[in-house]
Amino acid sequence: MKQAGLPVSALTVSGDPGLQIGAAPAGPTVQFLPTPGAAQYAQISGNSQGAEVIGSTLLFPNGGSDAELSKIENCLTAGVTG
Questions:
Q1: pTM for this one?
Q2: Which of 2, 4, 17, 60 is deepest in the core (most CB within 10 A)?
Q3: Greatest Cα pair distance in the chain
């Protein structure tokens, strides 16, 4: 994501590793879960309302622009298996 020109910092999201892109709370947040199934479960169960599942990650768009979210989605798709 840094290669895509996005300002990224590491953080913990509900006990899981994650990334903050830009400044919180407006910037998008990424939460890494152990498996794609865990990410889908978190979304379906309502524990991650508004998040998009990409592989084993949850992307919370917050106030991210369409261009910024597109870059993030492309990076996560390239780097997340499952």
A1: 0.89
A2: 60
A3: 34
